[in-house]
Amino acid sequence: MVTNDSVLQMLEEHTSFFRQGKTANAAFRIEQLHKLRRAIIRYERELLDALRKDLRKSEMEAYSSELGFVRSSITYQAKHLKKWMKPRKVRTPIYLAGARSRIIPEPYGTVLIVGPYNYPVQLILEPLIGAIAAGNCAVLKPSESVPHVSAVISRMIAETFEPAYVRVVEGEKEVTSALIRAPFDYIFFTGSIAVGKIVMEAAAKNLVPVTLELGGKSPVIVDKTANLDLAAKRIAWGKWLNAGQTCVAPDYVLVHEEIRAAFVNKMKEAVSSFYSDNPQASEDFGRIVNERQFDRLAAILDADRDLVVHGGRLDRDDLYIEPTLLAVGDASSSKALEAESMKDELFGPLLPILAYSRLEEAIELVRNRPKPLAFYVFTEDKEVRERVLGELSFGGGCVNDTISHLVNHHMPFGGVGHSGMGGYHGQHSFELFSHHKSVLTRSTKFEPGILFPPYKDKLKWIRKVLK
Prior knowledge:
This protein is α/β, with parallel strands linked by helices. Helices cover about 40% and strands about 20% of the residues. The longest helix is centred in the N-terminal third of the chain and has 27 residues, at about 60-85.
């Protein structure tokens, strides 16, 4: 049983391991990354089977978005780690002549990583890769909503690492509560906005720095110049990947009124071409994680039942919700925004569609909501593209695509405002889990003494230098 006292004891074990200095060594870090990669390969079948049991993920989807994703990340970070670890020389101003300045990356210590249920392999191991690369110890808390995945990851980590270095702690909400209230050196949380606020509040009491990877209602704007065939397919792929349980999935679409009907038809065609006319029978369409989340989505769908233009079928025993299109109305209408599907992040296979006549309407609607984790625009008009990118704030996004921006390890992935704080992936993961220590080294060969008392007429020289 996990208690406050047992968490403190666990932290003492990690602190003792960390102070041995092993993790400061580049060779040690790289070897641990390779050990993790070998473990993922060794446990591949068990992880794929667990993802199938918990979320009904197809093997293609599970490997590409989870296992293959983290394997590729390990390869990249291990290859470049030595270069990232080197102290970085920076310029020294003239008034500090005779000194040299460096920035030295150092690990925080022991990191708590709390993972979500939607990508339970990727979103617990990807931050772990960064934590290891930066030289930290880590405690992993997988989501209790995916028990099969959690159990496999727990066995895999226990077999691969010393528990005082990296360990998994399983359990329900009470366990998470005890962990986030402990004095870790860093907390990395992926999950809902509501829980993210609880994590941040708990961390603040111990002055623990946090990264919050949250979510929100990520919008799509489809301009009248968009390539509708591709737009529909790319939006459909991004929306119904993992049955819509993706933090950067398109949450609602703003489409120009001149192409609204054509867009809806193209979306219907995309659903049919991806999953057949019976997505429930498709091996490629996943399921809702549990009955609680199913009931939440079913209630939204029931409230907006008269808005359904495609889909809408439910099967609670199978945790199945059909890919569903909802014609919510016009972006300028307050009634449209009162639809149940437009209130909070959906995190499921429901897609509200709104029409706009002027780009200003679409921009204003997005602006009036909390800053989203992702934003997507489909257009062939450069002026439209530059305007929305310049006027809207969001974590990250794509032009003429969805979701793909997070696959590029050269770009940070993270939110802004209510959608989170802190970005990771690739070198950005190393930077995130490192404290950047500033060090200035002064020469002892001479000392101008201008800063030492008595000051007398020294101020005039200071005024000349600091102006």
